[in-house]
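Let us practice reading a record.
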Amino acid sequence: MVTPLVLKLTSVLDLAPADISALEALGGSRRHCAAGQTLVEPGQRVTAAVLLHRGWAFRHRTLSDGRRQIINFDLPGDLCDPTVFVAPHAGYSMQALTDLSYSLVKAEEVLDLVTRSPRIGAAFWWAEAHEEAIIRAHLVAVGRMSAYERVAYLLWELWTRLRVVGHADGKGFELPAGQDLIADAAGLSYVHVSRMLRRLDREGLVRRKQKHWRVLDAGRLRALVQISDAIDFAPLPRRIQERLSR
């Protein structure tokens, strides 16, 4: 079975069978933890990034008065967070939203891979650039968009990311996060999120049934988001792919 990491990276760059095998073995043995468990605390010394294979996690910062901002939802195939390779003290908390299967990836493993295979190096380069684009888009959404647009953006982002790793289709996706987490990701109150979700349903954009979200009108939802192009999974530019093929 193809791993989510391989699905994501091969969506933007062709990889040789040897590269795929190396990526599937990245991090060695798999670990497991239950929903609600904390994997990383702020200030903790961290020497390895978390590679998610199954399940959802989220990274956040919580202020002294309890206010929490979710920085990102971490999905299968995500390497969270490679900045620990150069800044070994975590600047965030990471918590399991669902039961998780994951591996711990050391910097030396990634360095060995990219030294042996420039194509893997380019794929990781793309993955890091794409996560940076998602964070920029999230900043724009929280800083300048209306509450309605923020919630729409978050749903669009998650749907886009899940489709690439085979965890969603063209009609919708499963979202294990409740309205409290959506609120902390969008910088809104629980009540505000509830109102915006009802409005999205009423206007025929999305519909929720328990944890399943159905996208009713992808075109209108994308237009509402405005910055959806910033998180598209576009292939690496042809000039770079041609250079890698030499």
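A brief commentary: The chain has a mean pLDDT of 92.
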